[in-house]
Amino acid sequence: MAIRSITEPTLDAAVAAIAVDNPATGAPITDVPTTSPDGVRAAVAAARKAQPRWQALGFRRRRALFHTSQQWFLDNRQRVLDSIVAENGKAEEEAVVEFIYCVSAFSFWSRRAKGFLKDRSVRSASPFVFGRGMHTRRAPLGVIGVIGPWNNPLINSFGDAIPALAAGNAVVLKPSEQTPLTALLMLEMARDCGYPDDVFQVVTGAAATGEALIDEADFVMFTGSTRTGRRVAARAAERLIPSSLELGGKDALIVLADAPLERAVNVAVHGALFNGGQTCTSVERVYVEAGIYDRFLTAVAQRVGEIRAGVPAGLGSVDVGAMTFPPQLDIVDDHVRDAVARGARVLAGGKRGEGPGRFYEPTLLVDVDHSMKCMREETFGPTLPIMKVRDAEEAVRLVNDSEYGLQASIITGDAHRGRRLAARLEAGAVTVNDAQSNYLALGLPMGGWKNSGLGVRHGAEGIRKYTKLQSISVNSHPTRRDPHMMPFEPSSYRLILKLVGFLYGRYKARRS
Ligand code: NDP
Fold first, then answer.
1. Which of 46, 142, 145, 326 could form a Cys-Cys staple with 213, CB 3.0–4.6 A?
2. Alpha carbons 73 and 220: distance in angstroms, whole number
3. pTM for the full model?
4. 5 has a pLDDT exceeding 80
5. What is the dihedral of CA 160, 100, 34, 9, to 10 degrees?
6. Which helix (H) or strand (E) holds 287?
7. Do residues 365 and 346 lie in contact, with contact meaning Cβ atoms separated by under 8 Å?
């Protein structure tokens, strides 16, 4: 069975080649073509043609294909990991997390899709629709355009295609031009597993390819920066198609005075440096209550000193890998320099790493405040700025003093207090005594507040967004004529108004 791909001439795709390199070594890997707007149009048209057959397969047969995919992942584990590490430069352990996510996502959505999308009966209290049977149903939207970033080449691209496919849609995926190879590997997965032709396609290219996809798809699932997200939303709005936007963050961690010290240190260091800090849910700023500040700082400095950064070479080789996107190095360096110029101290790192690859040293910043870029703008690099606060009240105020609201974390010895505090934080997701682990909880919706996004992934809402809602009302025992129908009869309307007074006037009467 042939899955059509951008490498085939049928899509008239290649107008310019994109060079893909290994960010950790600087070595070229390969070139991929830029898909022209015509190529994108052809891909979406083919997907649209294929979608009804995919929908007609039903949940049970799609589930069987998902099980095959799951097995494909297990059989091709090392190829998937190598692909992610090579094009992104992350440590292999971090690629393992992407791998686990996808294997579990096939399982989760194949088990839960049907229940999340089933018909629901609705009861109306209104006597004016008495006797009608009412229910809602959900139908796939058609062709979902998924546009993904470079920091997680698998989960933030193909990962979002899984629930879209489970709902009966076809998917056209545009990965970042920095990291297109793992998406292309998913094309191979679909072919090997026997997905119907054209149901899943990949179009490689840069912004123009993404724009062309927005111009053709029925829904856009976008993950990327807030700046691009605004453009995507505006373009989608021109066509009146819905979009879901998972955008940037400036995630905060609060360490309360009663926090278990070791846990706090591990969550802070892992949360800030995982993926070299190139994660939307990275811990980008830490607020520590005065009572534990000195002990916390000593322990964090020691732990950061133990972190191994460098070229990934299999499990156990490094903790922090490369910086994937070249301009990101300048942003990280700018934030560190700005902080130092405004009075911050660097306790570890603070400069670019050496070698032919792209690296920034794991960096610990103290004496920081909210006048500094490192506390206000998304850094997206291996930095850990720590600020002392008087108490939890000051921490809450500072956490909420941000244009972003993706995720926040609290470390405390009192889980009940953590839960109460969580409700006061302006973030779409809050973890207590954890950071980031909630991403693997596919039943728990996740989406940003404020400038961190619109819409959610995961949970019931994470698949319902890929459907259109239809309401059906059936009058199974129709009379010849209802009292409100034409020609209008004053006596009928007098009766109707009496009924309205009886039904809705009681409340007023009781109150007076
Ligand atoms: P960008 O916004 O630069 O790019 C994201 C994707 O959009 C890429 O595929 C990019 O293509 C494409 N694109 C760029 N311009 C346009 C356009 N005008 N129309 C359509 N598509 C376009 O983000 P990054 O790739 O730099 O990713 C990092 C950002 O992603 C960070 O801000 C991070 O916080 C965020 N992110 C958010 C997550 C969340 O769940 N909230 C998860 C992961 C990351 P190309 O790269 O080829 O130019």
1. 145
2. 26
3. 0.95
4. no
5. -90
6. strand 283-289
7. yes
| C-alpha 148 to ligand 1 mean position (Å) | 6
Superfamily of domain 37-117+134-247+459-468: Aldehyde Dehydrogenase; Chain A, domain 1 (3.40.605.10)
pLDDT in tens, 288-347: 999 999 999 999 999 999 999 999 999 999 999 999 999 999 999 999 999 999 999 999
Instruction: Give 251-443's CATH code, choosing from 3.40.50.300, 3.90.180.10, 3.60.20.10, 3.40.309.10.
Output: 3.40.309.10
**Residue whose CA lies nearest to ligand 1 atom number 28:** 224
CA of 207 from ligand 1 middle (Å) equals: 9
Task: Looking at 307-403, list the stretches that DSSP marks H as alpha helix, in order from N- to C-terminal side.
Answer: 326-341, 373-376, 392-400
pLDDT, tens digit, 9 for 90 and up, residues 357-412:
999 999 999 999 999 999 999 999 999 999 999 999 999 999 999 999 999 999 99
Catalytic positions: 246, 280
| Token duo for residue 266 | 């591990």
Helices 181-193, 37-75: axis angle to 10 degrees equals 70
Q: Which residues line ligand 1 (CB under 6 A)?
A: 147-152, 156, 174, 176-178, 206-207, 210-211, 214, 223-225, 228, 231-232, 246-249, 280, 325, 378, 380, 406, 448, 453
